[in-house]
Amino acid sequence: MTLGDPTESGAQQIRDAIRDAIVERRLAPGTKLSENDVGGLFNVSRTLARAALQALSYEGLVSVEKNRGAFVAYPSPEEARQIFAARRLVEPGILKSAAERITPAQLNQLRQLLLEEGRLMGERGQSARRAEIKASGDFHLMLASFSGNLIMQRFMEELVARSSLVIALYGQSSASSCGHSEHGDIITALERKEIDRACDLMLHHIAHIEADLDLRERKSFGLKEAFER
Amino acid sequence: MTLGDPTESGAQQIRDAIRDAIVERRLAPGTKLSENDVGGLFNVSRTLARAALQALSYEGLVSVEKNRGAFVAYPSPEEARQIFAARRLVEPGILKSAAERITPAQLNQLRQLLLEEGRLMGERGQSARRAEIKASGDFHLMLASFSGNLIMQRFMEELVARSSLVIALYGQSSASSCGHSEHGDIITALERKEIDRACDLMLHHIAHIEADLDLRERKSFGLKEAFER
DNA sequence: ATGCGCTAAATTGTATACAACTATCTGCGT
DNA sequence: ACGCAGATAGTTGTATACAATTTAGCGCAT
Question: What is the ipTM of this complex?
Fold first, then answer.
């Protein structure tokens, strides 16, 4: 996706690794992320670990409490509501912008992603489930990248990542696959240039995801288990 | 010296101070911000200076180049266009959300801000001009805060701050005062519960600001600027 | 002068050291 | 057993030290 810097700095790599772990739910909300442990895991000093955690806090994925340390964010129900309100507010506009400039090749990319998503839906197991979560988010991110607006793209990356946290906390297990057919419907509307309909479908899609939320407790992996393979 | 929020860490204070300086145009785009200088200015070590600069880079106000240091962001014309595209995409939704929950007291706050803005417009001098810029941005930020969505509020803070940079670079001098009456029109529409009209006015307002920009590629500095620092 | 290669100075990248704070444990008194 | 003061260990906050890289300066050949 972003091929700006060929060499990602140390802290950025760590940030990305932890973010993936959070988004793919290997790290549960509320998990403590001590600077020593993080640094130890990646064989770097606390300096870089700390920088990575700070970066994640700017994205809303980690909350750092003064003199107490960093934790995987544990969004409140109100926060969750605001995250989805933001998505409802923003995604139709992104979709519209993307629809105006989308190419057949890009439509094909979306179809391909949908296929992959469907394939993963059929499989069982934690790892397939994680990949499915990621693919589902990637659909929205790909649309954002097609909008041609890097700022909105980055904002969507933040919203999708935080949504994953919310779903991890409050989502019901069967919910995540619900969106699949809706993704397909949106693509179809895009192919037919029915932009308003696509926006409408998107709004309903987001509403459906949100409607499936409910309070729920999840058990967490420890930090070490999340990264050892 | 400052007996502010004790939870605000040193790095955050420095970040806020530098951000204010950038938004109020006391620091010109492209200005080098060396960690030593920043630390020296605030009597802290490079550690905190670096953290503050990193934070600002996440907000898009500072660009850090690997092994080269941090500079006040110098948004390209394309970046400028995307910033305003993002605002057009987002602000109508924010306005709508705010309109649905706004109270008479809050409408009054907006009126008050408008008054202050008008007062500053009359004055001359750099400092009044900076205050005017700030007040103009505060109008949009206040609306965002009335939307009740903290995430959108933070996003708008970023967009308004970056807009200030863009206007500093590409704005024509007489332009910034244009928006004043439009702010008033939007408030009036809000008072009359004409939400769609308010959104329309907002879109035109943003378009007007953008239309006043001279988005020509200024790839190279003038010779004078290139050597002074 | 202009351009090139080299050395020296300055700046950033990362690790370590120390200070400040928090959390945990211990031992005592009740 | 319970609660609490104080010691102890562990964690974070900040400063400093060292390594890696860039930038600036200088001499030299063309």
Answer: 0.91
**Helix-helix angle A77-101:A179-191, to 10 degrees:** 30
Helix or strand or coil: residue B71? strand
Residues of A in contact with B89 (CB under 8 A): 90, 93-94, 97, 149, 152
Which nucleotides of chain D are near protein (any atom < 7 Å from a CB)? Answer: 11-17, 21-23
Tell me whether residue A111 is exposed, middle or buried, using C-beta atoms within 10 angstroms of its C-beta: 0 to 12, 13 to 18, 19 or more: middle
Side-chain half-sphere exposure of B32, counting CA atoms within 13 A = 11
CA distance A116 to B145: 40
Distance in angstroms (rounded) separating the CA atoms of residues A223 and A166: 19
Based on the number of CB atoms within 10 Å of its own CB, is B11 exposed (0-12), middle (13-18) or buried (19 or more)?
A: buried
Asked if B74 contacts B27 with a C-beta cutoff of 8 angstroms, the reply is no
Q: Which residues touch strand C (CB under 7 A)?
A: A 9-11, 44-48, 67-68; B 32, 34-36, 46-47, 50, 64, 66-70
Q: Contacts of residue A90 in chain B, CB cutoff 8 Å? A: 89-90, 93
Residue with tokens 């911000």: B33
Whose CA is closest to B86, among B168, B155, B143, B137? Answer: B155
Domains of chain A: 10-74 (1.10.10.10), 77-211 (1.20.120.530)
| pLDDT, one tens digit for every residue, chain B (229 residues) | 333 344 467 899 999 999 999 999 999 999 999 999 999 999 999 999 999 999 999 999 999 999 999 999 999 999 999 999 999 999 999 999 999 999 999 999 999 999 998 898 888 888 888 888 888 899 999 999 999 999 999 999 999 999 999 999 998 866 555 677 899 999 999 999 999 999 999 999 999 999 989 888 765 544 334 333 3
**CB burial of residue A94 (10 Å; 0-12, 13-18, 19+):** buried
Q: Strand D and chain A: which residues 109-168 have CB closer than 7 Å? A: none
Name the 3-class secondary structure at A128. helix
- Residues of chain A contacting B159 with CB distance shorter than 8 Å: 151
The single residue listed with the structure tokens 């190279």 is B220
B61: contact with A, CB 8 A cutoff: no
Round to whole Å and give the CA distance between A157 and A213. Answer: 20
